[in-house]
Design a protein that fits this description.
Structural class: alpha/beta
Number of helices: 14
Largest sheet: 9 strands, mixed
Number of domains: 2
Number of strands: 15
CATH architecture of the largest domain: 2-Layer Sandwich
CATH class of the largest domain: Alpha Beta
CATH topology of the largest domain: Dihydrodipicolinate Reductase, domain 2
Strand order of the largest sheet: 13-12-11-7-10-9-8-14-15
């Protein structure tokens, strides 16, 4: 039985590598050193479903779990959540009766690692790294919600692990499989988007920490741990914190120790195509132009961050200015028109985002044209309207997406497609946001050496590229 499963998994891994080699040359089988003991994927038939374990099944995790199931491409073989049995996990538990359930992902991999082809990870930001790393060491393919990880070098290690273990990976910035992805790619290749020099990105909706006291001098007081919750596993490698409800059920996003604020939450949905197709890589400077309510515990009420990217190949330097906060709405160019809200922005725990005066999105400034766009899969428009009419006949035909983001991952595991947001693509994007968070926390301008991967003007900020040492007992998660 075990031999058959290993053969199946080995076939699946080889099929996935063959399918993805054109997109990820560094992962072609001839160019990669793989630990054969760790990599043991296989699938007997490309039409067979992928055996998936769902890790993090409440709130946003519940929505992603449903999306995986709707593809019809997977069998859910295990459920894992540190709060299994709580109100927010019961819906997914009920969808898969009889499926093994775990609170600790380490026990899941220990008992069922050989039966799992892929995992879906939708847990707090600080736990992405240890879960993904543990899965990849088992040779398990990984889909993880954005941002990829909480620190710069966690992202770096996950990119290295992707290469070492030869697994299929995908970060959950869903717009990377929707209309904007294919439009931006087509317009860039056709020369419609060229010579971009500046981008304005904005997310000005209310956040969970708005209204908190920025003068807070410590973390919130300890509260009793809910009976359903494995708090020790929730912390993962993070340093000890006493439980408080303001860390749990999405509140983790508020705190530097656990989440990445508005930038980490929305940046990947707004700037993903800009970053990939303009080949931005990493910035050379991040400057916090405005921080309202700055403190060392949770994110500012409002932030304006300037990211500077140098010239690349034949493309000019680019400045990206990020705005968040209710009172920090950027000016828009003349002829901007109406700010639309993308109807395809996914719900979180059943709640849809509320429309604002200026909805989440971006404005892209090139030497000849100005574009406006929204979030997720929203397509770009040339503005003003007169200019749009003028170039209408020059616009290329844009292909439709062959699969949504979830199906793309599963089909890539089968070797039938290539992942659109593998760690090799989504890792540097996430690192941009990690650098932004460091500038928010320090409140200072940082200079980044793209060659050495070091912050050169601030020793403390440079240490934050790694973050705090892992908690005792979690050190091995940080070894490739």
């Amino acid at each position: 039985m075990m031999d058959n499963k290993m053969s199946r998994r080995r076939f699946l891994r080889n099929a996935a590598l063959a399918g993805g080699a054109a997109m990820m040359p560094s992962m072609a089988m001839g160019n990669i050193s793989v630990d054969r003991k760790s990599v043991k994927r296989g699938k007997a038939c490309a039409n067979e479903k992928v055996d998936v374990a769902l890790i993090g099944i409440g709130n946003r995790g519940a929505e992603v779990s449903k999306e995986f199931y709707r593809t019809g491409l997977c069998n859910v073989v295990a459920l894992c959540d540190v709060d299994m049995g709580a109100r927010h996990t019961r819906e997914i538990e009920a969808m898969f009766p009889g499926v093994p359930k775990y609170r600790d992902f380490r026990k899941l991999f220990e008992e069922m690692g050989s039966r799992i082809d892929a995992v879906m990870v939708a847990t707090p930001d600080h736990s992405h790294f240890p879960i993904c790393m543990a899965a990849m060491k088992e040779g398990i393919h990984v889909y993880v919600e954005k941002p990829l990880a909480r620190t710069f070098y966690e992202c770096e290690m996950l990119m290295q692990a992707e290469k070492k273990y030869g697994v299929v990976t995908q970060m959950g910035n869903q717009g990377h499989s929707e209309a904007n992805y294919f439009q931006f790619k087509s317009w860039k290749e056709a020369g419609i988007i060229k010579d971009v020099t500046a981008v304005t990105a904005h997310m000005n909706n209310s956040r969970r920490w708005h209204g908190w006291n920025p003068g807070m001098q410590g973390y919130p007081a300890a509260e009793p741990v809910p009976s359903t919750l494995d708090w020790d596993t929730w912390l993962c490698a993070a340093q000890e914190h006493a439980y408080n409800h303001d860390y749990h059920n999405g509140q983790w996003r508020c705190w530097y120790d656990f989440g990445m604020g508005a930038l980490g939450d929305w940046g990947a949905h707004i700037l993903d195509t800009v970053h990939e197709f303009l080949e931005l890589g990493l910035p050379c400077e991040v400057n916090p132009l405005y921080l309202k309510g700055h403190n060392r515990f949770f994110y500012p009420m409002s932030s304006t961050l300037l990211f500077r990217f140098p010239e690349r190949k034949d493309m000019p330097a680019v400045d990206i200015t990020w705005y968040d906060g209710l009172d920090n709405i950027p000016a828009v160019p003349e002829g901007y028109g109406v700010s639309e809200l993308d109807p395809d922005i996914p719900a979180v725990a059943g709640g849809k985002i509320q429309a604002m005066k200026l909805n989440p999105g971006k404005e892209i400034y090139s030497r000849e044209l100005t574009f406006k766009g929204g979030s997720h899969g929203s397509t770009l428009k040339v503005i003003p309207e007169e200019k749009a009419r003028e170039i209408h006949g020059k616009l290329p035909e844009v292909p439709e997406s062959p699969s949504n983001h979830y199906a793309n991952f599963l089909l890539s595991v089968m070797g039938r497609e290539k992942p659109r947001s593998p760690f090799s693509v989504s890792g540097p994007l996430s690192q941009v946001f990690c650098l932004g968070v460091i500038s928010q926390w320090t409140g200072e301008r940082i200079l980044f050496d793209r060659e050495t991967g070091q912050i050169t003007n601030n020793p403390l900020a440079n240490q934050l590229l790694w973050g705090a040492l892992p908690r005792s007992g979690w050190e091995k998660m940080y070894e490739l």
